[in-house]
Design brief:
Order of helices and strands: EEHH
Distance between the termini: 54 Å
Strand content: under 5%
Number of strands: 2
Protein name: Phasin
Largest sheet: 2 strands, antiparallel
Helix content: over 70%
Structural class: mainly alpha
Shape: rod-shaped
InterPro entries: Phasin, Phasin_subfam-2
Strand order of the largest sheet: 1-2
Length: 153
Amino acid sequence: MAKIPGKTETIENVESATFDPSQATEQVRAVAEQGAEQAKEAFSKLQADAETTQKAVESSFEIAKTTRNELSLKTIAALRASAEAGFTHLEALVAVKSPSEFFELQAAFVNKQMENSIEQAKTLRAMMLKATEDASKPIKDAFEKALNELKAA
């Protein structure tokens, strides 16, 4: 019987746990190996995710670059068409014989230029919207893939 100080009860047949250093070492080693394996897996996944993200960003930049070039060419073509229309209009104005003919020609030119400007703005807007969608698609796809993998895990 063992007496616990400050208590009036006695404990009989108490077995104390024995400490076995060899088992403790094995348990610590097993936990350390498991932790190292989990760290390797986490690092491998992180590295794969980083590579996927890098590819998505590079793809987005390439699409943006291509679109920028297309927009530049389209803008240059629009400016060229506008300049040519302006020179043609000036040639027509030089040949004008009366003020009424001048005002008719000028009104027709302004109306035509407004129509062309509106059409060009619509075309450029559509190109910009498509470019935004195309450039963001690789990143959006990578993000959705990562979310799906998280949900599956």
